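Posting here for the record, re: NBP.
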Amino acid sequence: MPKLKPKSDIGLIGLAVMGQNLALNIADHGFQISVYNRTTETMDSFVAENPNTPGGVLGCKQIKNFVQSLKRPRKIIILVKAGGPTDAVIDTLIPLLDKNDIIIDGGNAKWTDTIRREKDLKAKKLRFVGSGVSGGEEGARFGPALMPGGDPAAYKHLQPIWDAIAAKVDAKTGRPLEGAEPGAPVKGGVPCAAYIGPNGAGHYVKMIHNGIEYGDMQMICEAYDLMQNVLGLTAPEIGKVFARWNKGQLDSFLIEITADILQQSDPITGKPFVEVVLDTAGQKGTGKWTSVNALDMGVPAPTVAEAVFARFLSAVKTERVAAGKILKGPSKRFSGNKTAFIRAIHDALYCSKICSYAQGFQLMREAQNEYNWELNFGQIAQIWRGGCIIRAVFLQKITDAFKRKPKLANLLLDPYFNKTIQKAQSNWRKVVSTATEQGVAIPTFSSALSYYDGYRTARLPQNLLQAQRDYFGAHTYERVDKPRGKFFHIDWPEKDRPQLKV
Ligand code: NBP
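Prediction output follows.
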């Protein structure tokens, strides 16, 4: 067992899945870490199971001893259940800390909570970093994507550790780098960690990441559903299609694991594994937060919202089974070329993905105005290139787009994305129309297409809508032949007006 130093470089509270893995990642990079967990036995067994890390792990049974075991300014990562438990841990720490000590919340906190906590702690002369940590268990252990926000001076103290433990990507290609063997530290490369902005900016960007992840996962499910229910392919056959797609434009972690999942058989029945999994999806709320935030800020982000609603719809299983016996759909069968349709599904998935990301970046653009942040969108896409669930080759195209034009109004307007959609849109439309004709639900593919068509339409039918509002509620309207911001109202003629029945 290596000799421990009198003081640790950093501390961590919360030794569940994320905390244990992040602590080991930190210790593997030569930093000594003190750990504390509310349930002491968890801490005891964690320390006993990991006696030989390069940096060393110091287990603490009492929170007071834990705090005293840290170098100043103390850096304490909290990785407990988001919400009340995070506040409870912060409240316990406050009287034990000294001026300028730093609390880092690595949980999936709501960004508004992070803004509140940072403000409260600042008033107490303590510093707070709200850091998104993405990549789940494996990312935390071997290289997550890290999205820190909060006090920039405080982040300077954390940065050497965050840079060391983060996933790394190649500076030129943006490709994720791997160690000499699985899990071995990566040499060189750009860390998937960068200061995002003040107060809640890091957690906000992590929330958008999760919202985008909801969209990506639902789109992949729709592609699978079309190959299964329109083309009649088996799960392993569909898995092979995804494996092929993973070598091209769609190369990404989620496509890769989908290929694996679809080719996995159930150890009990021997059937394709996906066939024994119940079709009801759970969620932890970050997709909902993203959608609610889009509604609150008035930013169109229908694709993520549809992905959240699709999970809700999946959850009413009993109702769907009953409805399926009553509500009939079309009985049309696919008679086209299967290979061409698989190619079309690929294109529909790629185009929908572009729209979903365009919406996510528009949300971040609006949020930076609302909260007075200055977000570096190209850098955010680069952080997401490695370590996290949405890591994908495609993200480099987003980094490139924002490098070309940092103030790009919408990703769709970037020449690469514009050209890609130009080339692929007839396939995308074919998939949406075929699915509609065949009665297969494709909420994200179709909402993304409507978003694309709506965004490129100079004159939408909301002229009529505004006239309706003026008619029944005197809500006024603007005129095409007068400057914006001047509002008018028509005195709708009483005699011709349909009477509301009370
Ligand atoms: P959980 O979210 O399941 O939380 C369990 C931990 O919280 C345990 O250490 C538990 O201590 C501690 N805890 C609770 Br619950 N209430 C507490 C309280 N009042 N005071 C002190 N400690 C308390 O753990 P996780 O899945 O490792 O996730 C940790 C954070 O990371 C969460 O915010 C999560 O949303 C986020 N996150 C998770 C993932 C993932 O893939 N799991 C990915 C990215 C981010 P105990 O042992 O005494 O019960």
